[in-house]
Amino acid sequence: MVSDPKPALPHPLPGAIGLSHLSAYDWEAADGVCGGSPHLHLVCTEAYVVTGGRGAVQTLSPDGYRDIPLAAGSVAWFTPGTVHRMVQGGDLRITVLMQNSGLPEAGDAVFTFPPDVLADPEKYAAAATLPPGTGPETEAAARRRRDLAVQGYLVLREALVAGDNGPYLEFQRAAARIVRDKVPTWRALWRAGALATAERTGAQLDALADGEPAYLGEATAHEAAPTRLGGFGMCGRRDEYALPGSTLPYQGE
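-> structure tokens emitted (253 positions)
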């Protein structure tokens, strides 16, 4: 008889990444485009692995405005500071891989709200936070949040396309001010997650070089399933995993 043990989960996913699945919003915004809430991440690179449907991701960065097509099998990723907006083109479904799991959920993402909202921490928190659950009240709040983010985003995009990167750079500075007080918490999460994972690899390399791979005696396998389905994320409806190294429910979502 083959046993089916279910080991504990002392280690994160490979590379201490975050993992979630998204189905892009089909809500139409003020510019006639259906999709998610534009935002950036301050220290985390994010990757989209498209598993079905079609759409695009619009990005704002020092290299200007881009509209990157998305289709099943394609991959797109964006480094810290890149504003990105997921666009629905037809049943778009994406697996998201996120650097530094735990940091995005601790506030690394900042929405492209208008300047007056970004300048007021209380106003920003009120606009960014959603009621708990997945009911109609939460959906309505998520849509209002998306619309407010698009309002600020369109101003940034128009200026960048016209050759004026001033509003975009000011938004980056405003985002940095919003998260500054969170850096000590992020540093602790990074040390316990991504840094610890890299250091573990270093220790394993040392053991192999010494010819003493005792750590291989801890080899095992893990399995998991989503622990929340259909949550309202920044870009769309989100399935999440409550595991070490995986994307946990975003604060306020």
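Residues 183-209 form the longest helix (27 residues).
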